Amino acid sequence: MSSSPSVAEPRPTPLSEQREFSLRERIQLWLISWAAYLAIALIGPTLRYAVSWEEEPSQPDATFEKPVIYSFWHRAVFPATWIWRKQKIAVMVSRSFDGEYIARIIERFGFQAVRGSSSRGGSAALLGMKGVLEQGETVAFTIDGPRGPKYIAKPGPVKLSKISGLPMAAFYVALSDAWVLNTWDEFMIPKPFSRALVRLSRKTVVPSDASEEQMAEYRAQLQAMLERVTRFAEENIARVGSSEFSTRSL
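RESULT FIELD:
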């Protein structure tokens, strides 16, 4: 896939806003982030991907569109990191320990990490994501992160669509063969040479004058999008490699 147009480098988080980690935590962060980076870099190239859309993209061979506000479940971070590497997609991650190692991992694959969450730093992070969209790029939310509840969409993308005027959509990555960790999100690590099916939803825009009641309705729509693409991908993963779901080299 061709590289995306160059954009301004993201501004680093001011030191006053960065969380301080203990020596033990810093060592753990170094070990976890490098181990995960190596795992993704080694397993990723062996995967066979197919991409499926609810509505046809503007470019037939696209794997995502921009500028769009995407949402996906936390459990799919591993395959999503590989398929959309080096695209400078901005991802909101929390300032927690888990968020920090995720940020370090994805930044090594060419993503931008915007720190903030629904509980802390959310407003500033939304403005950072809005700035990325204004540059013509794409953003993504691990929508049930950083610690759940699992498979419940938070309101961030709905708010961002309202203030930016840009569409939101959802995607999911199903795997034919994966190790599923005993974590809150049932995190997936694909086994080498497994198949992956990416399913992307149709897009919708939240009006700038949407009321609180309408915002709740759009959040319910986002939840339905996520559930719909998840169900489709899981039900059709066995068909990856067929004429309908031909694999791509990424």
